[in-house]
Amino acid sequence: MSVLRNLENKIAGLVEGAFGRAFRSEIRPVELARRLAREMDQHRHASLSSTYVPNEYIIWLSPQDRRQLAPIEGGLVEELANYLLEHARAERLALVDHPHIELRTDQRLALGECGIEAHLERYEGRAAAQPEFAAHRSATPVGAVSGGAYAGQAFLSVGGSRTPIGPRGVVIGRSPDADVVLASTEVSRRHAEIVPEDGGWILVDLGSTNGLRLNGRAVGVPTLLTDGDAIEIGPTELVFEAY
Questions:
Q1: How do residues 85-131 score in pLDDT, each as one tens digit?
Q2: d(CA 132, CA 141)
Q3: Radius of gyration (C-alpha) of the chain in whole angstroms
Q4: Which of 97, 76, 77, 75 has the alpha carbon at shortest distance from 88?
Q5: What are the Cα distances from residue 204, in Å, to 60, 125, 200, 217, 224?
Q6: Which of 20, 123, 140, 224 has the fewest C-beta atoms under 10 angstroms from its C-beta?
């Protein structure tokens, strides 16, 4: 049985009656699954040993479609997340955490139309506790130490303040929960992070709105850092130091 057919059968069990009668809208769960997988494939970020993909997805639906799916929304997003997890494993893609899917309504969308946002986010306490979410056999979840080897002592210097980077890395962003907080509207809540991998340190853009620059050049994929690198996030420059 194909993964999509298995998904359809599981969702059919969430409601009474035949699957075809359960959904009168133009947007059907299996089509959402296909679109989510396509969005995952289009946002791959290659690092030294792994290819990371987004783990957070927002599906924008028309008011009519959202109302139609409302009775099974909880079970639907769970099955779609499981489908994405299986897709990542089949393609040997790395997830930093179990896929998280949220349905939202956009009044501008017509029946049958939808939009999908994809972001790479880290959820503290879950990724490290459940390493099976890393689909690539050689992948290490963001926030864990690759191969059990500590990448060495490192710091981030920001405006005279020096922040140590622990063995699980640091998150940089506008959110008060970030390890390095940058108070600027040009900075996303979780903008970027620095994580250990293969004995070095990797700079990762967490799907930020305005991106980031390394030594004056825009970077969109996970990039190996070296001592003295200048990281630009919004109006702020951070200097990476490693020993």
A1: 889 888 888 887 788 999 999 898 888 888 898 888 754 443 333 33
A2: 9
A3: 20
A4: 97
A5: 26, 19, 13, 14, 9
A6: 20
Are 122 and 190 contacting, i.e. CB atoms less than 8 angstroms apart? yes
- Residue whose C-alpha is closest to residue 197's, from 92, 47, 94, 45: 47
Alpha-carbon dihedral sign for residues 136, 137, 143, 145: negative
What are the tokens at 97?
């955490």
Taken as a whole, the chain contains a residue count of 243
Q: Could you give the C-alpha distances from 131 to 55, 84, 138, 148, 208, in angstroms and in order?
A: 14, 16, 12, 13, 24
The secondary structure of the chain as a DSSP string is --HHHHHHHHHHTTSSS-HHHH--SS--HHHHHHHHHHHHHHT-EE-SS-EE---EEEEEE-HHHHHHHGGGHHHHHHHHHHHHHHHHHHHT-B-SSS-EEEEEE-TTPPTT-EEEEEE----TTTTTT-GGGB-STT---TTS-GGG-----EEEEETTEEEEE-TT-EEEESSTTSSEE---TTS-TT-EEEEEETTEEEEEE-S-SS-EEETTEEE-S-EE--TT-EEEETTEEEEEEE-
Residues pairing with 114 in the sheet: 61
Phi, psi of 215 (to 5 degrees): 55, 40
- Please give the mean pLDDT across all residues of the chain: 78
For residue 119, give the amino acid letter: H
Regarding predicted confidence, which is higher, 127 or 52?
A: 52
Contact 82, 6 (CB under 8 A): no
* Token pair recorded at residue 119: 């972001």
